[in-house]
Design brief:
alpha+beta; D-amino Acid Aminotransferase, Chain A, domain 1; D-amino Acid Aminotransferase, Chain A, domain 2; 2 domains; 8 helices; 21 strands
Length: 423
């Protein structure tokens, strides 16, 4: 008798993907429903600080309200509540405290030059939060319903807390495993919440200084891991190295991977380089690819790529007079190393570099320290209207994004919010 066939063992990655698909397909329990949102308004709201108030630099001043929704394995999603900002009620045995079962998004609401409130591509943040949540065994979150909840929250709190034109406030949607049950297991209870926090302007006048990571600093993410999702476990392990870098006079870590020094991200931001191709001499805007799931599919990253392809490529779909002086370029998503950047600098092919993300927006890079007593002086040949040094391409892309965010141009990425205010 022939021996029975032995099934091939599934990899951990295959099991994770299978479980995520199963969670996303479940629909027997009540789903997230923004139409069921209830309102309890704060009768003792805070005072909005001035734009130059130092309290904004503490990153801990929140608006009058928060929005919360509870989910349980047995009952599904409950009705969302908009209520006064305050403590979340969780027990010391909650999974989020012990096993990093939490995911989040970073967004901003903007007060435009026309006085209107806007969100920037909120659909992308909400879709990503759904994927991040299921990646760590938390419930699926309907992106469209989450987007409606964000809009409702902004419509209530931002009329008061975002009074000045061309200003923003930081939004933090998050989901945590809040059930009181210790043990390495799929959470049976979760809490989704949305808050808004006052941030100061994050302009860096003379460009960011980056310290390239060494192998003893660890890595931010790795192939087959969870660098593509926005979960807390990606960030905590990086804070020690980041703090050390700042003590040495740098703004962020440029995270490298492996002995070859593959470039991934700058701090928690996506990273771009503009250089001339070593072989063809053609100008390229290059950034790490998404295919190996090491880096985050940043909303700003995606927007930079799409704008560059439509306005700066050799076959642009939008022709703008203000960039006719800029050489056309190819947009390239592929792996490259810190040695590639160093060689481009030494041979005169390096044009500029910048990081981008919700928090730092578009931040030009002025210097990269990659070896002891050896660094890369990144060219910065443009001074912007607000007096900041920059590369020309970063300056153009930053201007285009700001025009959309603050309503200087009409664009589908800028989603106008109808204001309600707290009643």
């Amino acid at each position: 008798m022939a021996p029975a066939a032995v099934p091939v063992a599934a990899t951990a990655s295959e099991l994770t993907v299978s479980a995520m698909k199963a969670d996303l397909a479940k629909s027997t329990k009540p789903q997230l429903d923004a139409s069921k949102l209830t309102y309890t308004f704060n009768k003792h709201g805070g005072v909005v600080p001035a734009l130059d108030d130092p309290i904004r630099r503490e990153h801990n001043s929140s608006t009058d309200h928060m929005l919360t929704v509870k989910w349980t394995e047995k009952g599904g999603w409950e009705a969302p509540q908009l209520r006064p900002y305050g403590h979340l009620d969780i027990m010391p045995t909650a999974s989020c405290i012990h096993y990093a079962t939490q995911a989040f998004e970073g967004m901003k609401a903007y007060r435009g030059v026309d006085g209107k409130l806007r969100l920037f591509r909120p659909d992308l943040n909400c879709k990503r939060m759904n994927l991040s949540s299921t990646r760590i065994a938390l419930p699926a979150i309907d992106p469209e319903q989450l987007e409606e909840l964000v809009k409702n929250f902004v419509s209530v709190d931002c009329p008061k807390w975002l009074p000045n034109a061309e200003t923003f406030i930081y939004l933090r949607p998050a989901v945590i495993a809040s059930g009181a049950a210790l043990g390495v297991q799929k959470p049976r209870e979760a809490t989704l919440f949305i808050i808004a926090v006052l941030f100061p302007p994050m302009e860096i006048m003379n460009g960011m200084r980056l310290l390239a990571s060494k192998e003893d600093m660890g890595v931010r993410a790795w192939p087959g891991g969870h660098g593509w999702s926005k979960v807390g476990a990606n960030y905590g392990p990086t804070l020690q190295a980041q703090g050390e870098a700042r003590e040495r006079g740098f703004d962020q870590i440029l995270w490298l991977l492996g002995s070859e020094g593959r470039v991934t991200e700058a701090g928690a931001s996506n990273f771009f380089v503009v250089w001339k191709n070593k072989t063809s001499g053609r100008l390229e805007l290059i950034t790490a690819p998404l295919g190996d799931k090491i880096i985050l599919d940043g909303v700003t990253r995606r927007s930079v790529i799409e704008l560059a392809k439509s306005r700066l490529s050799h076959n642009p779909t939008e022709v703008l007079k203000e960039v006719q002086h800029l050489e056309k370029l190819d947009v390239v998503e592929q792996s490259y190393t810190i040695d590639d950047i160093a060689e481009a600098y030494e041979s005169g092919r390096l044009v500029e570099a910048f990081a981008c993300g919700t928090a730092f927006f578009v931040a030009p890079i002025s210097y990269i320290q990659h070896e002891v007593e050896k660094g890369i002086e990144v060219p910065m040949n443009t001074t912007t209207a607000d007096g900041c040094k920059s590369g020309a391409y970063a300056a153009a892309i930053k201007t285009w994004l700001k025009e959309i965010m603050y309503g200087k141009v009409s664009h589908p990425w800028g989603v106008v919010i109808n204001e309600r205010g707290a009643q």
